[in-house]
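Provenance

Sequences were taken from public entries as deposited. Structures were produced by running a predictor on each sequence independently, with no templates supplied. The record for Rhodanese-like domain-containing protein from Amycolatopsis pithecellobii is shown for reference.
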Amino acid sequence: MNQVPTASVSELPAENVTLLDVREDNEWSAGHAPGAVHIPLGELPARVSELPEDQPLYVVCRSGGRSARATAWLNASGWDAVNVDGGMKSWHAEGHPVVSEQAGAEPEIL
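Predicted structure for Rhodanese-like domain-containing protein:
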């Protein structure tokens, strides 16, 4: 696989970016970054039109593998995408906010 653009969580701009989470529904529901866009990796080709075209795109999964594949596909398809190194595990470990879709449940990264 070709090298994809990568940034650490600490290198992400604070605003005016789209964070695309490509994890599965159960992972998203358990815990995700507030304001992220959720499109599971397998659905990305069919749903790519849902992504805003006017902001830099940072792609995240659990640890960086799926998001690297999504980033490579997006860039080959004409998007300007960057893989988030370490994924949601790094996001959470660095103290960034995580929210859950499960009522009353403590957010967690699956």
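The longest strand covers residues 81-85.
The helical segments are 25-30, 44-47, 65-76, 87-93.
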